[in-house]
Design brief:
Blueprint lengths: L18 H19 L4 H33 L4 H22 L3
Helix pairs in contact: 2-3
Length: 103
Protein backbone atom coordinates (compact mmCIF):
# COMPACT_ATOMS: atom_id res chain seq x y z
CA UNK A 1 0.00 0.00 0.00
CA UNK A 2 1.40 3.35 -0.94
CA UNK A 3 1.04 6.48 1.10
CA UNK A 4 -0.79 9.46 -0.38
CA UNK A 5 1.29 12.45 -1.39
CA UNK A 6 2.77 14.11 1.70
CA UNK A 7 1.15 11.85 4.30
CA UNK A 8 1.21 8.51 6.06
CA UNK A 9 -1.02 5.56 5.04
CA UNK A 10 -3.58 6.35 7.77
CA UNK A 11 -3.37 10.14 7.71
CA UNK A 12 -7.15 10.45 7.29
CA UNK A 13 -8.03 7.83 9.94
CA UNK A 14 -9.18 9.12 13.34
CA UNK A 15 -6.56 8.70 16.04
CA UNK A 16 -7.36 6.40 18.95
CA UNK A 17 -6.49 7.79 22.35
CA UNK A 18 -3.38 6.15 23.72
CA UNK A 19 -4.88 4.11 26.55
CA UNK A 20 -1.50 3.08 27.92
CA UNK A 21 -0.32 6.68 28.21
CA UNK A 22 -3.60 7.67 29.88
CA UNK A 23 -3.30 4.84 32.41
CA UNK A 24 0.33 5.72 33.18
CA UNK A 25 -0.67 9.37 33.71
CA UNK A 26 -3.54 8.35 36.01
CA UNK A 27 -1.30 6.05 38.06
CA UNK A 28 1.24 8.85 38.39
CA UNK A 29 -1.46 11.23 39.63
CA UNK A 30 -2.69 8.64 42.14
CA UNK A 31 0.83 8.02 43.39
CA UNK A 32 1.48 11.75 43.78
CA UNK A 33 -1.80 12.16 45.69
CA UNK A 34 -0.93 9.17 47.92
CA UNK A 35 2.55 10.62 48.59
CA UNK A 36 1.01 13.96 49.54
CA UNK A 37 -1.97 12.72 51.60
CA UNK A 38 -0.67 9.40 52.95
CA UNK A 39 -2.64 6.26 53.73
CA UNK A 40 -6.38 6.77 54.37
CA UNK A 41 -7.62 6.31 57.93
CA UNK A 42 -9.18 3.02 59.05
CA UNK A 43 -12.53 4.75 59.58
CA UNK A 44 -12.49 5.95 55.98
CA UNK A 45 -11.77 2.42 54.72
CA UNK A 46 -14.60 1.00 56.83
CA UNK A 47 -16.96 3.67 55.49
CA UNK A 48 -16.01 2.73 51.93
CA UNK A 49 -16.72 -0.94 52.64
CA UNK A 50 -20.09 0.00 54.13
CA UNK A 51 -21.05 2.11 51.13
CA UNK A 52 -19.95 -0.66 48.80
CA UNK A 53 -22.19 -3.12 50.62
CA UNK A 54 -25.21 -0.85 50.44
CA UNK A 55 -24.61 -0.21 46.73
CA UNK A 56 -25.07 -3.95 46.15
CA UNK A 57 -27.77 -4.68 48.76
CA UNK A 58 -30.27 -1.90 47.97
CA UNK A 59 -30.97 -2.81 44.30
CA UNK A 60 -31.08 -6.50 45.23
CA UNK A 61 -33.67 -5.92 47.96
CA UNK A 62 -35.70 -3.61 45.71
CA UNK A 63 -35.81 -6.36 43.08
CA UNK A 64 -36.89 -8.85 45.74
CA UNK A 65 -39.70 -6.72 47.16
CA UNK A 66 -41.04 -5.56 43.80
CA UNK A 67 -40.85 -9.12 42.49
CA UNK A 68 -42.79 -10.51 45.46
CA UNK A 69 -45.44 -7.84 45.04
CA UNK A 70 -45.80 -8.52 41.30
CA UNK A 71 -45.91 -12.29 41.91
CA UNK A 72 -48.75 -11.75 44.39
CA UNK A 73 -50.64 -9.52 41.94
CA UNK A 74 -50.27 -11.87 38.96
CA UNK A 75 -50.19 -15.19 40.93
CA UNK A 76 -47.05 -16.37 39.14
CA UNK A 77 -45.30 -18.15 42.02
CA UNK A 78 -41.71 -16.95 42.28
CA UNK A 79 -41.03 -16.31 38.59
CA UNK A 80 -40.95 -12.52 38.64
CA UNK A 81 -39.23 -12.47 42.03
CA UNK A 82 -36.35 -14.59 40.75
CA UNK A 83 -35.94 -12.50 37.63
CA UNK A 84 -36.02 -9.15 39.44
CA UNK A 85 -33.75 -10.47 42.19
CA UNK A 86 -31.11 -11.37 39.59
CA UNK A 87 -31.56 -8.06 37.76
CA UNK A 88 -31.20 -6.15 41.05
CA UNK A 89 -28.09 -8.12 42.01
CA UNK A 90 -26.55 -7.55 38.59
CA UNK A 91 -27.35 -3.84 38.73
CA UNK A 92 -25.90 -3.57 42.24
CA UNK A 93 -22.67 -5.36 41.29
CA UNK A 94 -22.31 -3.23 38.15
CA UNK A 95 -22.84 -0.05 40.20
CA UNK A 96 -20.27 -1.18 42.77
CA UNK A 97 -17.76 -1.96 40.01
CA UNK A 98 -18.30 1.47 38.44
CA UNK A 99 -17.95 3.17 41.85
CA UNK A 100 -14.70 1.33 42.64
CA UNK A 101 -13.18 2.16 39.24
CA UNK A 102 -14.01 5.84 39.12
CA UNK A 103 -10.93 8.08 38.89
Amino acid sequence: MTAPEGGSPDAGAPQEPDRLADEVRRRGERHARWSKEGEPAVARRLAQIGVLGWIIVVPTLLGLFVGRWLDAVFATGLTITGALLMIGLGLGCWSAWKWMNQP
